[in-house]
From TrEMBL:
SUPFAM superfamilies: FKBP-like, S-adenosyl-L-methionine-dependent methyltransferases. GO terms for biological process: RNA methylation; siRNA processing. GO terms for cellular component: cytoplasm; nucleus. Its cofactor is Mg(2+). Residues 215-353 form the Small RNA 2'-O-methyltransferase Hen1 La-motif C-terminal domain. It is an enzyme of class 2 (transferase). Residues 829-848 are annotated as: Disordered. Residues 705-829 form the Methyltransferase domain. The lineage of its organism: Eukaryota, Viridiplantae, Streptophyta, Embryophyta, Tracheophyta. Belongs to the methyltransferase superfamily. HEN1 family. This is Small RNA 2'-O-methyltransferase. GO terms for molecular function: metal ion binding; RNA binding; small RNA 2'-O-methyltransferase activity. Keywords: Magnesium, Metal-binding, Methyltransferase, RNA-binding, RNA-mediated gene silencing, S-adenosyl-L-methionine, Transferase.
Length: 937
């Protein structure tokens, strides 16, 4: 059981995370002070002092030579003040009880009153009180104010953590055993036996603040009866009155010492807690307390009093009516701290507990965003990562941290097929399995799979998810699996009334094994307290996590589209940026008009279910700069109220029966799915890699020693070629994009200079800025020319011009040209838009794969272009491709023409009259002889 104690800083981190702010200050100390014997050491020595700010208090350390020591010292001071134990060795219940008695007695020491412990605030009020209760404080505030006390209670009985009533009974026992503390016959007032120091009244006087002001604070009432709505109420605090009295009054309890207090809900610095009256059975019969919790009868009675909504929210057992209010004494100030708790705060807390709610909250888009159902890439994922979300969910439901385990394996050729299919289903959706989209598979692909296990605090397994999906990267596998669990949980929370027997089956569909007993134990309170279905006012198309069956069918809504078609539209995988506003309207009543949510810029990835169905459906019909409006039925009431913020009170009083939501949206920007992204998703290895492999094969076959890459872009081909052993000695690239060329130069330069692999035979490399529709004599007569995925970026006549120029003037021995096969697009699109059936595909022409494409050719168009060029310039041409298969319809995903120069003896290699023209600008050159002199620009 003995674990090594955590370092103080680690412990503070565990408790406060990023809320703990350390600041190091340098303090100069002169050497002669510290080492008087050393006359030579005249240099002042640096020491460091650490200031630590926590939500609850700020401390500073003594100066230390090492920053780290200063930080630990500050952490230790903070821990002592907060009563957090640094030693992990758990005390026995008896030891804990002894310590608890000591701790409570310590609060009654005279010097305690002048400390800034929150409990001191209660004493100050007690010593100002005239009459019967002079010097008395309510026992329940002790646990709420002192972390050490609650930790000790937990050590005595672990269940005390989740049950304030039990914690109180433990305290009662300790108080009764204490020789110096008394407890009242009625209620739970405690005070010190004997007389207090004479200094107390004057001390209290000194600390007393003069202002007697009434502060009105918004709070939230949780009625015990589930049929009564949660409502807001206003409390009034003043300096002349003990704040607990005001709460007691609102709860209709005569004695404020009978008010029990929950742990802090939400942010640690919020002081937001639930207050409720101690169950009647408990109050007077304090002698029979030990029997109380073992008595069946009292347990049944308690059960009836359980306030399920409040309990679910706080994770503790709360009984009877409860008030959630932000008030109390803090470490930071001796004044009473209080702040409003709006009804929307409650709905946000509630939303935050749902598996998908935290995502919506952090994206500040409760009505727009949905937790995506697919994880594609880190860069496309917006908002908090799935793994983080799952951890938060577990923490909020008081479960252990999820345990991830990943496996790596090499797919053989057969399993690669499986790997590829599951990859598709992960990202987009299924293409019929017999459609062999993936033609050339690499022999072995290493891939990752991830499993996750979620256990209760005690370590009993609750659910296990073994995800079939394979990922190229380990971190993606973890994110993907975490998302899968979250998606499943989201679905589950939307149908809490699911019979237990369906639970297993329901998990199976997601490859999730559920341990029903443990699962229900953990979610039991949540289950019975929240029937989210009931919160729904209108019928809404069921939120389905299954992209393929409902995403578009149910989303058939009418959008009013505004503005001219700009031709730039999103496609699956695009990351788009929109602005939107959601307004609550009433069918007949014009006065109902509340803006619930609005965002100027909201980014998300299309095709992953990252927003509500209707919104995604609408965005699919817009082009950039167009706007639209559409209506949807009301979603869950708690969503509306969480989104509403300030006007929640008004809205909560409205009958929402004939209301609906109006969304106004505008498409601001589309970041195209890089073709590569789609290709990566659908093909392994990615098409770009397959194209490189294809080129390498032709290079080595033809023993080419020089290569020019027409439209080299940022040099992906040239760069990858350097990773292969080839016959090449000279390489060159041309492009019109200066920016891409500069990137290419950087990459190639560093690779060639480090000279690690097979690129040692490369003796010359150069990059040129220029259009490949112009001839430059420096690139004449190269052995091989490549032009991969470039021609479709030019107008068709330019593409033809390039064909003419390259074969008539550059005259490479071999020319490889690749371009997308237009006929293949439906497969790419169908796999991303599964519900669009074929008839629709034919009716609406397929979109190009990239909005920068000026055209995309069918196989026939491409072959016509290539055949006539070849014939004209004495080349023979062969057609091939990558991705899919050439033998079955609709051919390869990317079509390739390989031109070979006919070696007709009569035709001598000659340059035309343009032989000296050099329109290209060389922007970088490298030669193995003088690699450092040759770089220009
Ligand atoms: N071949 C690269 C880049 C393809 S993207 C690859 O496979 O990764 C198309 C490239 O063609 C862009 O870098 C673009 O700048 C370039 N390009 C378009 N028109 C061009 C022209 N007329 N001359 C030279 N390059 C051109
Ligand atoms: Mg392209």
């Amino acid at each position: 059981m003995m674990r090594p104690a955590l370092a103080p800083k680690a412990l503070i981190h565990q408790k406060f995370g990023s809320q703990a702010q350390y600041r190091i200050e340098e303090v100069l100390q002169h050497a002669e002070n510290s080492c008087p014997g050393l006359a030579i050491a005249q240099q002042p020595r640096s020491l460091y002092k650490c200031y630590l700010d926590l939500p609850e208090l700020s401390v500073s350390s003594d100066p230390f030579p090492r920053k780290k020591d200063a930080e630990h010292a500050a952490s230790k001071i903070a821990m002592e003040m907060l009563g957090i134990e640094s030693k992990v060795n758990n005390p026995t219940p008896q030891e804990a009880l002894d310590e608890l008695i000591l701790r409570i007695s310590y609060f009654f020491a005279d010097e305690f009153l002048s400390s800034n412990h929150p409990l001191a605030g209660h004493f100050k009020v007690a010593f100002k009180r005239i009459g019967g209760r002079f010097g008395m404080i309510p026992l329940p505030v002790v646990t709420a104010c002192d972390a050490k006390v609650s930790n000790l209670c937990k050590a005595i009985n672990p269940k005390a953590e989740s049950d304030p009533v039990l914690a109180l009974s433990i305290l009662l026992k300790a108080v009764r055993m204490s020789a110096s503390i008394c407890i009242s016959d009625v209620g739970f007032w405690i005070w010190k036996l004997g007389t207090h120091s004479a200094a107390i009244p004057s001390l209290v006087e000194k600390l007393d603040s003069a202002s007697v002001e009434n502060i009105h604070v918004e709070a939230v009432l949780f009625p015990l009866l589930p049929e009564r709505d949660v409502e807001s109420l206003t409390l009034c605090f003043s300096d002349s009155q003990y704040y607990m009295d005001e709460i007691a009054q609102k709860l209709n309890v005569k004695d404020s010492s009978c008010i029990l207090i929950s742990r802090i809900i939400g942010k640690a610095s919020s002081e937001m807690r639930l207050y409720f009256s101690a169950p009647k059975l408990l109050s007077c019969s304090s002698d029979s307390l030990d029997n109380f919790f073992s008595s069946k009868e009292s347990n049944i009675n308690l059960e009836k009093m359980l306030n399920r909504r409040a309990s679910y929210l706080s994770g503790q057992n709360i009984y009877g009516d409860a008030i959630m209010v932000q008030v109390g004494y803090t470490w930071k100030s001796s004044d009473l701290f209080c702040d409003d708790v709006f009804l929307s705060s409650y709905y946000r807390l509630l939303l935050g507990k749902l598996p998908n709610g935290h995502y919506k909250l952090l994206r500040e888009a409760m009505l727009g965003a949905e937790l995506p159902t697919a994880y594609t890439t880190r860069s496309n994922w917006k908002g908090p990562a799935p793994k983080t979300l799952l951890s938060v969910f577990c923490r909020q439901h008081r479960l252990s941290e999820p345990i991830f385990s990943t496996r790596t394996f090499d797919c053989t050729e057969t399993s690669a097929e499986i790997c590829y299919v599951s990859k598709k289903s992960k990202l987009l959706s299924l293409v019929d399995e017999d459609e062999n989209v993936n033609g050339e598979l690499e022999k072995s692909i290493s891939a990752f799979r991830c499993e996750v296990k979620i256990c209760s605090k005690k370590g009993d397994p609750i659910i296990e998810c073994s995800c079939d999906d394979t990922y190229r990267k380990e971190c993606d596998a973890i994110q993907g699996t975490a998302l899968k669990v979250l998606s499943w949980l989201t679905r589950y929370f939307e149908q809490l009334d699911m019979p237990v027997k369906n639970l297993l089956e329901f998990g199976l569909a997601y490859n999730i094994s559920v341990y029903p007993q443990a699962f229900l134990n953990e979610f039991a309170i949540g289950l019975s307290s929240y029937d989210f279905q009931k919160e729904k006012r209108c019928t809404l198309s069921p939120i389905s996590m299954n992209l393929s069956n409902s995403k578009y069918e149910n989303g058939m809504i009418h959008c009013n589209i505004d503005g001219p078609d700009s031709g730039v539209y999103p496609s699956p995988g695009s990351v788009i940026c929109i602005s939107y506003a959601v307004v609550l309207l009433h069918k007949d009543d014009d006065t109902v008009n509340e803006i619930l949510e609005s965002k100027d810029e909201f980014e998300f990835e299309m095709g992953t279910g990252a927003v509500i169905n209707e919104l995604e459906f609408c965005m699919n019909q817009l082009t950039v700069n167009q706007s639209a409006q559409f209506h949807v039925d009301l979603p869950f009431k708690h969503l509306i109220l969480a989104a509403a913020g300030e006007p929640t009170k008004r809205i909560s009083q409205l009958s929402l029966d004939d209301c609906f939501l109006e969304y106004s949206v505008k498409l601001l920007q589309v970041t195209e799915p890089l073709e590569e992204r789609i290709e990566q998703a659908l093909f392994s290895p990615p098409l770009s890699k397959q194209r490189v492999e294809f080129a390498v094969k032709r290079i080595n076959e033809s023993h080419a020693s020089s290569l020019v890459d027409f439209g080299c872009g940022s040099g992906s081909l040239l760069n990858l070629l350097l990773d292969h052993t080839t016959t090449l000695g000279t390489i060159a690239g041309v492009d019109i994009s200066r920016r891409s060329l500069i990137r290419a130069a950087k990459v190639l330069h560093s690779k060639l200079s480090t000279n690690t692999k097979g690129q040692d035979i490369i003796s010359c490399a150069a990059l040129y800025d220029g259009s490949i529709t112009k001839f430059d004599s420096r690139l004449f007569g190269f052995d091989i020319g490549t032009c991969l995925e470039v021609i479709e970026h030019m107008e068709e006549d330019e593409a033809c011009l390039f064909g003419e120029i390259v074969l008539s003037l550059f005259r490479p021995k071999v020319l490889i040209v690749s371009t997308p096969n237009y006929e293949y697009n439906p497969i790419l699109q169908r796999s991303s838009f599964p519900s669009q059936d074929n008839s629709e595909d034919k009716a609406t022409p397929s979109k190009f794969r990239n909005h920068d494409h000026k055209f995309e050719w069918t196989r026939q168009q491409f072959q016509q272009w290539a055949n006539s060029l070849a014939a004209k310039h004495h080349y023979i041409v062969e057609f091939s491709g990558v991705g899919g298969s050439g033998d079955s319809e609709p051919g390869f995903a990317s079509q390739i023409a390989v031109f070979r120069r006919n070696s007709i003896p009569s035709e001598k290699l000659r340059m035309s009259n343009q032989e000296t023209s050099q329109p290209y600008e060389m922007i970088w050159e490298w030669s193995s002889q003088s690699p450092f002199l040759s770089e220009s620009n």
